[in-house]
Amino acid sequence: MAGQTVPPPARMDPAVMLTQTQKALSIFYSGQGHSREEFKEAEAWLESFQHYPQAWVVADALISDQNSSPPVLFFAAKTLQTKVYLDWEELEPGMIEPFKQQLVRHLATWSVRRREGGESGGGGGGRRGGSSGGDLGAFLNRLCVVLAAVAVQVGREGREYGGKEDTQHGRMEVVVVDTNWQGVLTDCVNLLASHAVPQEHILHLLEELPVEAHNEQLTALSRPDRQAFREQLKALRPHVVAYLAAVDVGKEAGLSPPQVLQRKIFRSMGRWVSYYRDLPPTDLVENRILLDAFAVIAQGAARNGHERLFQSAIDLLIDVFVAYDCSLPEGISLDACLPLAQFLVPNVFALQPTYLASLRPSSLPPSAGPSPHGDTDTAKGICMVFVEMALSYLPLLLAPEPYQQEALLRLLLLVTSHPEPSVSEYALPFWYELAKAGGRRAGDGGSPGVGERYASILQELLRALVERMVYPPQDGGGGERAADGTRRRRRNLMSFGDAVKDVSSLIGPSPCLHALAHLLHATLSTPTPSLPPSPPPSWRQTEACLWALRSLAPSLPLPPSLPSSAPLDTDTTTALTVVPQLLSLLLSQASPSSPSAPSLPPLLRVTIHHVLGRLAPFLPPHPPSSTTDLLPFAYPLLLADLGSPAASPSAARALQEVLLACGRVTGPDSLPPLTLFGQIYTASLAGQLSFGNETLVVEGILEGIVARMDGEGGGEGGREGGREEVVQRMVGMVGEHLGDVVGKEQQERRREGGGEGGGKRQVMVEQDLERLTTIIRVSEPRLMGRRGGGREGEREGGTSPAVGAVQSLLPVLQAIYDEYKGKPDVMEKLCRFFKHAFRTARPKTAFYPLLDPLVRFLLQGLAETRQSSFLYSISYVVSEFGPRRHSHNDSADARAGNGSGQQVGWWLERRGGAGAWRGTDGRRGWPAEVRWGLARPGGGERARRMWGQAFSLRAGTKIRELLARLLLLLEEASQIVFSSVLRNGEDFTNHPDMVEEYFYFASKFFAHCPVPLMNRCRRQEMLVPTLPQTLLQSAVVGFVTLQHKDAQRAIMHFLETFLSAGQPSLPHSAPTSSAAPNGSSSSVLSDTAGMQDWILSLLHSPSLPPAMTPPEQHPLPPTLGPALLFKLFHGLAGESARELVNHSEKPCLCGVLSRAAETIPPPSLREWAYAALQAAVPEVLATPQEKQEVWEAVCHFGERGREGGREGRDRREVFAVVGKFAEKCRERERKTRRKGRV
User: pTM for the whole thing?
Assistant: First the structure.
């Protein structure tokens, strides 16, 4: 095909298209003798030609060609399936009946060819007959799918639908033609039988009919017609069941193998049962098909010689159990289920001998090869039937009446005990459902609960689970096989561990703990010093018991935090008695001083670490149950194993959990946290400990010990100072090493005559920056942490660890920037450090002297490197140090300075006595910015409580000056971004990361301080007077135009925040002047009105200049308001509408549209929205009625929002209308794009 000039497919003659398609298929399926370019051209042709009306004729011609190969035939059948699904309206009404007859003739012709060629039936595999098209069976099955789809399209209560294209209006005119096709089933069967089509394909058609009736890909079928056809099939269910039961498998032996026909019967029956679940159970009981399925299963998968027949019988029984599941609220009632259960349960129990026989290796034929676990295929199939039956009849298991419950539970126990984990895992969902339904509750009328009634079975189940956790012997494999085995075992351990928790929820943790302790003592009864170099299998049982103990740990009650005279419950007493004994036993075997420690297998040592970590709260003494402190024994074990390559990750995780749970690792006279940190840091630098494992331990030290220390010293870290001093010394230790590395790098660069740093030292710099970030991030106590409440009052006037760390590290950080500013990875780590320093600094006022140099530093980095990570860090200056209009913190957080930068209280500090309200100019009263920061929806009582407190400004802190600095930061950062990075529309597409970070950064100003920004603009104090217009213009350019999900989300977040800033935010019951002197609610409302006017003036400003406008199909309206609505409605019909409209994610296109409707005045909204809808959404994607519906919904929502109506309900309603409109537009856009009309 290469080098040939062919006419466009839309005007190509069908004969020419057939020739081109045959050539493309020859190239595509030959695989040899053609270049890569020819193969790509052939592939592109085969993908595109299916979109055109000539494809009907071409596909039929390919099937009619007796010389077509099976792959070509399969491709032609797949083409017809695509046309029936998506392009049904291309068929004229008079062409439908001939097309149907032609399909039947093709089935009959190729069935004969297949039988004459000696090919066995049932080829292709799978419900759809496979997708490779490697045999005639796959092609014939696909033709049956096409015929079933045709039946759904035309078999609508005896009516036949066709369509003609109205080229003048771009619509499809629907034509209804009367036909004699009154019964789909009768017509299909008679039609196929009249052409001598084998029974195999009639059965496959019956299998596909209910599937196609529920197929949403049939785009030409309306929902009422689809539902009507489903009801028509539903009425035919008894006839279908009777027909399937009447098929004589032996009579058709000459046309199709009996096993193939039997498999088709099972599959067809399963489909009808699955899709139409209200078939009377008596019809199934009286039918012989289920008995045939039980007979097939009783023979086993390997013995009957056809595994697919065995699997189809299993699938049929599973479909029956799922369809008649009496455990679901919407399922069949228990009384109606009893006749079917009385038929199925005995037949299922009769499969138990077959299951037991499958466990023997002799059950496999010689051709299958050796298998230690017997016929696993048969075992898996029967296990699935056992489990599905138990799940379906779960209410019978919970009933107090005798229904062979214990026999069924022992059947499931037998499944769980299968030696092959892939088989025994099938039973685990049942135990979970039993635990969820039964639990430890007592039965009705005070009868025993499930756990008490079946305690002996559940105890056996626990032992069976431990046996399944035993590590299998090594098979000698390596490489990918060994890695795959490790992943599979890890998954199995997690699954069986969850089952241990299910058993605990049924019988309680105490019996489980006693049983595991007994098993563990039994496996450790042999003295471990006598172990030979190759340990005996006993360690595997020990490891399995330990993993079960690890899984049980979350179910155990935690030790009481404080001594109490109240009696403890049984489970707590048992845990405090048994767990320390088990931990002591483990530590005595695994401790570095123990003679048996060197001979412990690595896997057993790793599992011991897991147990120590999970049971860490039981290591300290808890009198009177346990008086021995096990921490001094656990600490050397974990530290010693940190140096082991195989055990280091688990030891690090366990050490972290011990530190977090206990707050110490040894007694008071042992290693303090700073010394321990130094040892860990030194080992990591020496390569003895990986960086990830070091991070785990350091986080445990900081959060478990340092964050609990007092600010001024004392406690366990008294010899090294308080928390702040310890953190400073840790930072100094890392900073000193970091300075040495950077200094050596600078010296080397100077010797080499320039260049930038890199290589091994760059990795060391990145890791040290990560260490510093971890220290700053974790060392500060959680604001409402485990000690309760904030700690700001304890160190009022003190210096936060973050503040001191940044002060001491500024020269080193500057040197890192100078040396590595061309390395994005290093700069990202550096910016991440600043981000966490901003977030963890307490009080915020202590950080004010550092703000100016840090902001200068970050702006310099943004201007010189043009990396979005600097903008990311700068945005945290606004969120952490700026006021927030909508706050969720209470007044206590505001007074203490706690929270995440959401209160103007960061600038305020409580002083003793009743202070006066004074502004920055010395006059009484709040500045407008402060009143705006305190005003928020739902503020009510909290606002009055806050305004009633005695606040005064901290000495040397001026709110207006700080706000001015923040606004100047917006201008300077915007100037850098728009002058060097986002200069035109093409830059927006090339730098989506910068677009994302910039709009998140800009949105914070409208969330935190919109009124000061408005006042600065109105006073013409901005360096760039048109910055607000530029922000909106840039958002309109990037919205929907950018094909980058995260950047689009950022722009939508900015637009939603910007539009929300103009909406009233005070509660209806605003605080009175007595609560806030000279700060009446009227002044705040005037600010709100001013914001509304300012935002509307921005929406009336001119649209984008040509330099900022990327090439588009539609020009933008001249003003920003209509341009914004145009972009919003254009996004509804775009390719990415599914992600943008999804209101389960925040932000979303519906949210922006609703905010715009609330902000824009109703007259302008009606005018702009109508014009935007007409211009943005073409007629081919939405009808005028659909546009009218969306327009009315949006305008009505805007009016209701201004009236203060049911906003939540109205918002959901407009979301539903807009989402439905977008879905329709997307479907039509996809369909018309296939045809080249868009």
Answer: 0.77
